[in-house]
Amino acid sequence: xxxIEKLRKIIYANSVAVIGASQKKGKVGNELILRLxxxxxxxxxxxxxxxxxEVEGIPTYASVTDIKKPxxxxxxxxxxxxxxxxxxxxxxAGIKGLIIISSGFKELDDDGAKLELEIKKxxxxxxxxxxxxxxxxxINADPNIMLNACFAPLNPVVGKIGLATxxxxxxxxxxxxxxxxxxxxxxxxxxxxxTDINVLDIIEFWEQDDSIEQILLYIxxxxxxxxxxxxxxxVNKKKPIIVVKSGRSxxxxxxxxxxxxxxxxxxxxxxxxxxxxxxxxELNLRDMFGTAxxxxxxxxxxxxxxxxxxxxxxxxxxxxDTASDYNIELAELSQETKEKLxxxxxxxxxxxxxxxxxxxxxREQYTQxxxxxxxxxxxxxxxxxxxxxxxxxxxxxxxxxxxLKLKYPDKQVIAVFxxxxxxSERLKKVVPNCTIPIFKYGIDAIHGLNRLLERRKLxxxxxxxxxxxxxxxxAVKSIIKEYQQKGMKxxxxxxxxxxxxxxxxxxxxxxxxxxxxDAKKIAEKIGxxxxxxxxxYKISHKSDVGGVVTNIKNKAELEIEWKALFxxxxxxxxxxxLECVIVMKQISGSQREFVxxxxxxxxxxxxxxxxxxxFVEIFKEIAFRACPLSVNDAMVLISSxxxxxxxxxxxxxxxxxxxxxxxxxxxxxxxxxxxxxxKEIDINPIMVAKDGSVFAVDARILLD
Amino acid sequence: xxxIEKLRKIIYANSVAVIGASQKKGKVGNELILRLxxxxxxxxxxxxxxxxxEVEGIPTYASVTDIKKPxxxxxxxxxxxxxxxxxxxxxxAGIKGLIIISSGFKELDDDGAKLELEIKKxxxxxxxxxxxxxxxxxINADPNIMLNACFAPLNPVVGKIGLATxxxxxxxxxxxxxxxxxxxxxxxxxxxxxTDINVLDIIEFWEQDDSIEQILLYIxxxxxxxxxxxxxxxVNKKKPIIVVKSGRSxxxxxxxxxxxxxxxxxxxxxxxxxxxxxxxxELNLRDMFGTAxxxxxxxxxxxxxxxxxxxxxxxxxxxxDTASDYNIELAELSQETKEKLxxxxxxxxxxxxxxxxxxxxxREQYTQxxxxxxxxxxxxxxxxxxxxxxxxxxxxxxxxxxxLKLKYPDKQVIAVFxxxxxxSERLKKVVPNCTIPIFKYGIDAIHGLNRLLERRKLxxxxxxxxxxxxxxxxAVKSIIKEYQQKGMKxxxxxxxxxxxxxxxxxxxxxxxxxxxxDAKKIAEKIGxxxxxxxxxYKISHKSDVGGVVTNIKNKAELEIEWKALFxxxxxxxxxxxLECVIVMKQISGSQREFVxxxxxxxxxxxxxxxxxxxFVEIFKEIAFRACPLSVNDAMVLISSxxxxxxxxxxxxxxxxxxxxxxxxxxxxxxxxxxxxxxKEIDINPIMVAKDGSVFAVDARILLD
Lengths: 704, 704
Description:
The structure is a homodimer.
Chain A: H1 3-11, E1 15-19, H2 28-39, E2 44-48, E3 54-55, E4 58-59, E5 73-76, H3 83-92, E6 97-100, H4 110-125, E7 129-131, E8 137-140, E9 147-150, E10 158-165, H5 168-177, E11 185-190, H6 199-207, E12 214-219, H7 225-238, E13 241-245, H8 250-260, H9 267-277, E14 280-281, H10 285-297, E15 306-310, H11 313-325, H12 335-344, E16 355-356, H13 363-375, E17 381-387, H14 394-407, E18 412-418, H15 423-430, E19 438-439, H16 442-460, H17 473-486, H18 493-502, E20 510-513, H19 516-526, E21 530-536, E22 548-552, H20 555-572, E23 578-585, E24 593-601, E25 604-611, H21 616-619, E26 622-626, H22 631-639, H23 658-674, E27 678-688, E28 694-696, E29 700-703
Parallel strand pairs in A: 1-2, 1-5, 5-6, 6-7, 10-11, 10-12, 12-13, 13-14, 15-16, 15-17, 17-18, 18-19
Antiparallel strand pairs in A: 3-4, 8-9, 8-11, 20-23, 21-22, 21-23, 24-25, 24-27, 25-26, 27-28, 27-29
């Protein structure tokens, strides 16, 4: 059985043994039985307890070994000291699935961590599957299952959301919030310490579970960054994945570490992974729920252009401002649409977009206006703003919009209603299954809409095939081997340049010289002005020791500078670690300096590109993506920072050769894919010459 | 009577004539009477209508002239064509205050605008005071007044907020939202077209009205930027002013223009004004209400350090992340506090900040923990996060916090509660006058808290006295006069430099030369390398025509370049507008180039400072403040962009002379204060030399 199939046995269980079931009110072991009963579990419940004949009216067993029937999983809420014994008993009873609610493991102390490790070994030994420990439980609201195996007193409204959370307590909060925004839950998995089953298994499980239409994650760490990218990239194409990952700040990271015992990853890595995989990262729960509400009720619109319908000018203008902040396009209303609107609206109404139907608007005027906008070719999404000003039409308008939604399935609608407190109650009576996302504030509606439009773009985006690069793998392998054999991690500048050369990464013309005669020959060949830089086995920061001389304009200057360079070398390189001197063409650069690089974080190579020069540390205009880079990844790296503007025509310099730059990044990615030993690559700077050509002018490669 | 006293007659009215009062349900003239009655107006209501004997049980008059009693204001809701006549009648009846609800003026068309102008003239002629036209009305919830002169069916909960809005319809939305977040309203003024009374009059009125503790504004334009800054700077010290100004985007601006007929100002100007005046600008209503909720319930904390108390790890970490995003300091718990907490909490609880009392926490544990934190020296503000996980203690915890609040008045508390939908209802019964701001999401709570802490800083901030600069006013006046007499707006480079010199603005050493001999003498004096730049009466973009030569290293080069420059000049300056050639010391700059400038927008001079060089347009790292600049304003200009990092020690260059830079900005401000004819000043670049000294190396001054 595959991991997924094993997980399915738990989530779609037909029988559960509750170990630690209790008759005492308020005890976790009692709450678990209550939840299973209340929610209407369709399978068999076997409470395990030696002291009672029954728990909440269900006959108990003294041990799982007494049941003698197939059990899909054991739900364990006994003190941690008992867990290893219980696993033995479960094995005897033939139980392969476990959910351990109990806590006190690695999240508490070292002893707990040791015990957790033993549990892990036992699980592996018996080929079992474990959710938890230290979790709230799980929920599956499939009508044929109706499994609520949580101890918190909550029963969710049934819907289409899959929620996996690394904070069990948060699940309760979320389950209370969801009905308030008319979102239902299909499955909830409290991940706990993820000793066996982790968030990636859950995502893969949901990939294949058609009842889950949207995946929400709250995580504090990423268990396996390579697998994360791979899985999410694939699953995200089928259903949206929205994640809140905490521990972004240094202090936040500390709080996470003490909270779940997991090592919080570096946030740049997380962002690079999310972005590369197309996962939507929200920074807080408010935005997560806003976005979920939109995805829960809207399809990807055929046409992305927005129309705003409002009965109050101010909120219309505010929504326009916000749409503009998010670069959402407003539809330009056609003459035809305008004429239709003029017929039904008073002359004071502004027949424009935003369409202000003014305070006196009736329900009919709203509905007719909405229909005219829906029916128009130019509008793809409608934002309906309603303020209770003269007539209370709030519920009626939603009713009408529901009808229009059926009639115009290609068009999407989002509502912003500022009305009386009892609106939700009244709405529930008239439109019990409301399918329109309704917000109180335009900002939240538009934030969610923007996510929908971003996903539209992502799904429509074509991924160009990667160009095939001719590379000299053997050359690189042998350089790496040589350094490894010598026990050296830092490649010399010359070796780094040779690695680049082997992968056809564009370099400023250069040669290596040991004597002034070599240098002169190279200089003649590549042409002045030139740069001299030392390639030393020990020294990586060449400039700091005076090992770089720029802007040498002619042979005379070369002679002087060569001598001065070697005078300086004597003072810092007594041991003779100098490999050679690089003689490189000086690229006159128009201040267009960039950096590119790769860093291995956890198991993943992360690529970066951005603004170089003096400004690297100051502006931090750098983008990150996880390797292997796709063509689109490379383009995003190039275009997503403000620095990208420097790649256009700037002050008489030609636009940079973007194709070359993109290929440079793809080649770097290929280089680390094919040479996992590489820990870091640093190209600082990459120069864009006046004619737009792109050159790496320095290189630094570090091995693991 | 002052303008404020006249306004007071309307807002604190004891009698109102409703012109256009109607017996027909749903009519504005009927709604107005209903509102006055329902809300319990303490004064006299005189409905004016020729066709009925009474309206809603109140006897009518055919005309205001028939009342023969003093009337504090007339509330007018008749068709716009009748308004001028009505003003005549009001004058006859001795009525000095008007609120015109009617619309169809400048917001509609040119005819409307003309009529509005005539109304303005009539108002001025009869020394009347007018709110509107095209407004929703006003509310004053003073218990002795209870005036609701609005036509929308809304009666606010009474509180301490003053709300002025340029979108009347929005007022209804807001009045519906406020009770949902437990905020009461004291006064609401729908500004309408602000033909007479504008938002600034209202702010000045509220400055003196002690019943208003917080001012909320929704505006689409700023009527008088100079007065705005002056008034808000003063009033904001007494009570917080929170503003949402729409029309930020280009499209948004268009929507505003069509909506109220007002010309939306430039958004940079608006921001500069808000920041200079210390006004809190929120970009959307959600954030405005969040902030208002915090200010409504919290005082400025004595100690700014935050403690987070939570029963769920995840939300605690998220709050920590968010606090860190806002640079809010978390309190470090003392050993003493930790010991106290350990005594009351289970061992699994993380006795840290955030303090995770874990899912099992009882009401007592919450309350005791909160009290320990309140009682500690290290904590100034407490964020209490509660999720309904095992016991539903939500209302109880709020009850307890209310008591703690009384006991520890110096400490502030904000709550984030994720609980069941009926929480508000249940809370209302147990704590009807809840004084704790309660949010659903940490992000909103922390956004509001951050505003409170910003205000704490603002109020604590000392404003250093401006240094006194010796300046040569006469020299500048005479240069300006000379140019004005010639009808020239653009000062030559030389004239601009002379103006700067007169105000002791630090310039790179320079002289003006007409001959090569002059140039050589100046160069000898200031030392090579030098720059040559032409000063021409017509040409302002000197570089574009080859009028600038940099990096001239010696006399020989000077001779060559001088000749070449004059050869070029011949080709573009046939008419002989060349004034002289500036010979200026070349500042070798370490790439530390900045821009500073002043621009007159509407009636205000706005100062800017930020990153210069190639990067000006790309990074837009520029800050704006309204003149006259205070010392703090100047410091904010210098320090608020990323560019400020370049002012520190960078790559072997000394930190910039901040005092000199600050004075440079203050001198620029003084220059435009004393010479209002100046429309624009542009210094690009200001160079920071290697030794940290600061020099303007170019200047451009434009007159009105």
